């Protein structure tokens, strides 16, 4: 072997050693990088999961925000659905106006809550606003239907068709049509529609909330006014926090 070959072999050995050293350094860097990535991924998942769990628990445990005084407790003169008053742990009293768009928007939420909860009574009280010309006739129609055991059925029809009759010039005719659809005795319905009993019930409801109700709908949880929940989920969590059971 000549001198050039020996020198070349030496250089090759040096280059090989250098390459091996570089490879080892790269492997160490990659190991550290992977360890760092795994660690930060774990931390991110842990923190994210913790925050999500806290948000979930907070939403489930959200209690009512009381914003006013109290109204008289529900009694046998009120219209009640859901749990009977004697069996209820919670009572929700709603003051509403049949022509109020916001009341119409809340209607499906209240109906679903009443169907979902086993120990909550839902009470409807009339609060017809003077600017809504059809609100009082609608309340009278519901009271007249109630005399024949169909208050809630009329209540539902009035809210479900609010966008139609509220724009009509003959809302009373629409209510009469609903009464016929419900199979009511129309002679009795017409008599009860303008009876002193119906008018007194509506006025009594209105007066019972006049000092606390500043808009419709207004909700009272166990007689105390609460901030209106924004949606079904929030209303449900409030009732669950208060002891309501599904």
Automatic annotation (TrEMBL):
Transmembrane recorded as keyword:
yes
Q: Which GO terms describe its molecular function?
A: oxidoreductase activity
Q: Which Pfam families match?
A: Thioredoxin_4
Top-level taxon in the UniProt lineage: Bacteria
Q: Where is the composition biased (Basic and acidic residues)?
A: 8-28
- Give the matching InterPro entries: Thioredoxin-like_fold (IPR012336), Thioredoxin-like_sf (IPR036249), Thioredoxin_domain (IPR013766)
Protein name as it appears in the record? Thioredoxin domain-containing protein
Which family does the similarity line name?
Belongs to the thioredoxin family. DsbA subfamily.
Outline the extent of the Thioredoxin domain.
Answer: 57-244
UniProt keyword list? Disulfide bond, Membrane, Oxidoreductase, Redox-active center, Signal, Transmembrane, Transmembrane helix
Q: Where are the bilayer-spanning segments?
A: 37-58
- Region Disordered, residue ranges: 1-28
Q: PANTHER family attached here?
A: DISULFIDE BOND FORMATION PROTEIN D (PTHR13887:SF14), GLUTATHIONE S-TRANSFERASE KAPPA (PTHR13887)
State if Glycoprotein is listed as a keyword.
no
């Amino acid at each position: 072997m000549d001198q050039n070959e020996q020198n070349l072999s030496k250089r090759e050995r040096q280059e090989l050693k250098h390459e091996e050293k570089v490879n080892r350094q790269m492997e160490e860097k990659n190991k550290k990088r992977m360890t760092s990535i795994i660690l930060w991924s774990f931390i991110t998942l842990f923190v994210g999961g913790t925050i999500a769990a806290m948000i979930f628990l907070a939403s489930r445990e959200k209690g009512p925000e009381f914003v006013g005084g109290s109204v008289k407790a529900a009694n046998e003169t009120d219209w009640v659905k859901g749990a009977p008053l004697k069996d209820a742990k919670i009572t929700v009293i709603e003051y509403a106006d049949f022509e109020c768009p916001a009341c119409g928007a809340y209607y499906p939420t209240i109906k679903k809550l009443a169907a979902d909860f086993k120990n909550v009574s839902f009470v409807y009280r009339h609060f017809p606003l003077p600017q809504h010309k059809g609100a009082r006739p609608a309340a009278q129609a519901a009271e007249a239907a109630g005399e024949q055991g169909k208050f809630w059925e009329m209540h539902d029809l009035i809210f479900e068709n609010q966008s139609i009759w509220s724009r009509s010039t003959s809302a009373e005719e629409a209510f009469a049509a609903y009464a016929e659809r419900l199979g009511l005795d129309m002679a009795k319905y017409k008599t009860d529609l303008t009876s002193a009993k119906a008018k007194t019930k509506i006025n009594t409801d209105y007066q019972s909330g006049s000092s606390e109700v500043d808009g419709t709908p207004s909700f009272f949880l166990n007689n105390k006014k609460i901030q209106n929940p924004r949606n079904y989920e929030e209303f449900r969590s409030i009732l669950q926090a208060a002891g309501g059971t599904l």
